[in-house]
UniProtKB/TrEMBL annotation, chains A, B:
This is Phosphate acyltransferase. GO terms for biological process: fatty acid biosynthetic process; phospholipid biosynthetic process. Its main location: cytoplasm. Catalyzes the reversible formation of acyl-phosphate (acyl-PO(4)) from acyl-[acyl-carrier-protein] (acyl-ACP). This enzyme utilizes acyl-ACP as fatty acyl donor, but not acyl-CoA. SUPFAM superfamilies: Isocitrate/Isopropylmalate dehydrogenase-like (SSF53659). It comes from the Bacteria.
Length: 338, 338
């Protein structure tokens, strides 16, 4: 209910997902509104139910509202369904902070994870890179970054199908002497991880395909995400302007358009679906507020894959293995929540 | 001497600057090599001298080498010339960490500045944005960010000619509730600044022209810079690939090429010259290692403008004004150097 164009887009995407991926869908929200949207679609042979929720978290509500005030808001009710075993995953295009808070409050964290993280998939020139955290973990401790690395590695291996993902820690240079207080200690801890930790990487490595997972705190991750969005938009705005002022270039653009469209498809977020919410004891995928039905459909696919490929179970085992390999002084519970 | 193609490119750029901007040039470096390069150019009517320096700092030397070991390296000798009143500014395409270290060691900082910063000019859809620090100040205190804001504001006003530059603090969202420990305190301090502080800005604001100066610590600034470089390259690599695989699109590209070239010129770093090193008691401009002669020429223009427009004098007055307006508890000297 919380998306920019809810619930029309969500219902359309969910119906498409039910048809295409054969998943059973429970639409959570205002039963009248959702029902009216659902009537617009053919649903023969599909398993689609409506579960009423009386309230909605808006984009400007604080994440804590979902916990303290809005007990019957759709995002919280959706996670309740997972907790009660009626559903296996939640997909939301609503307020991402509230989705994260609701997921954590209702489902709790998986053992060994102090802070759930939001991961985003970014296209690179060869394939794609998973960047996390791009959620709200702004002041992290080194161990949190280690946990993000662990979760990102498992997700990339299990869901994105990379056999031995290369995991890098985002820094201001590749040399050992680089980094800040946070990354230096995280780098030290990550060196003893059993997965393929490749060390410090730079901002450019997100796009050149040299690494599969890029780990950073949520402040830096958000900056990266917004810089990427802003720069892409900026480049195309400037290019459009230059092309638009030249008649011959306009004709040229028309001829080259299929190439631009292919590029656009390649970097189109709706192909990926959404951003996995990792570290909660259940499955959640967070979509852009303005998601298209296609993005919703692909987000359902993502969430399904997380469940089928046992992402959380793998994470739990991996974290246990990491903790067992550490000296006693490194204790996940000593990291405070911010 | 430390640039990727030194000293040929530097000499060519310096000669062009002498001719175009009428500045007197002292070329600092290996007298034989520099002299051989200089002989390739017509220098009638220009004031160009060579000052010998026996050593060079390489790209992989540490910044401390310039201070402890290489006392006769070209970058240090160049700053010595400024200290001794023989020159008024230094332009370097060498190791930027070493340039910053040499500038700070030889010229010291201007009063009230704890840490010099490197500022970079990024094109936005309307004009340009100054982002600082993109240098090596990875672990900053809130007061350092205030000082960066002050310096960036003065540079933008005096050199880039914006009358009342809008200064923003880079954060993970615009709301007051956003930010990390560092930005929250810096935000509180910046609110009492006399210049036009507009509050938190996001990564996308670097490109949409909504703000003139974006302030961040050097870790985040470096990530922004490298993400921007990597993404721009990535976008054009992917576009080229899509165009290259379609004969019709190739023809279209040829027709649209002037538009692409105009765009390229607009975002071409060599038009800006270099990155001003702010906060040292003198003037320094740091260029890309692989700078073109044009970039060197424009960097000389930048350095000249800093001197002519009395950037440092304005900064000193501005900092004094800021400090006078603060309660006694806020003391610049309490900020430690990292």
């Amino acid at each position: 209910m919380g998306g920019d164009n809810a619930p029309g887009v969500e219902v359309e995407g969910a119906v498409a997902a039910a048809r295409r991926w054969g998943v059973a869908i429970i639409l959570v929200g205002d039963a009248d509104k959702v029902g009216a949207e659902l009537k617009k679609h053919r649903v023969d042979g599909l398993t689609i139910a409506i579960h009423h929720a009386s309230d909605v978290v808006g984009m400007h509500d604080s994440a804590s509202d979902v916990i303290r005030k809005k007990k019957d808001c759709s995002i919280r009710v959706a996670f309740d369904l997972v907790r009660n075993g009626q559903a296996q995953a939640v997909v939301s295009a609503g307020n991402s902070g509230a989705t994260m808070a609701a997921g954590m409050f209702v489902l709790k964290r998986i053992p060994g994870i102090d802070r759930p993280a939001i991961a985003t998939i970014m296209p690179n020139i060869k394939d794609k890179t998973l960047v996390l955290d791009v959620g709200g973990n702004v002041d992290c401790k080194p161990l949190h970054l280690v946990q993000f690395a662990l979760m990102g590695e498992v997700y990339t291996r299990r869901v994105l199908g990379k056999e031995r993902p290369k995991v890098g820690l985002l820094s201001n240079g590749e040399e050992e002497s680089k980094g800040n207080d946070l990354t230096r200690e995280a780098h030290r801890l990550l060196k003893s991880a059993s997965f393929n930790y490749v060390g410090y990487v730079e901002g450019r490595d997100i796009y050149n395909g040299s690494v599969d997972v890029v780990v950073c705190d949520g402040f830096v991750g958000n900056v990266v995400l917004k810089v990427a969005e802003g720069l892409s938009e900026g480049i195309f705005t400037m290019l459009r302007k230059e092309i638009g002022s030249r008649p011959l270039a306009k004709i040229g653009y028309l001829l080259a358009r299929p190439a631009f469209q292919a590029f656009r498809k390649r970097v189109d977020y709706s192909e990926y679906g959404g951003a996995p919410l990792l570290g909660i004891d259940g499955t959640g995928v967070i979509c852009h507020g303005g998601s298209s039905p296609k993005a919703i459909m692909n987000a359902v696919r993502m969430s399904r894959e997380c469940v089928v490929k046992k992402v959380n179970q793998t994470m739990i085992a991996q974290i246990q293995e990491y903790c067992d390999g550490q000296p006693a002084a490194v204790d996940a519970s000593s990291a405070t929540q911010g």
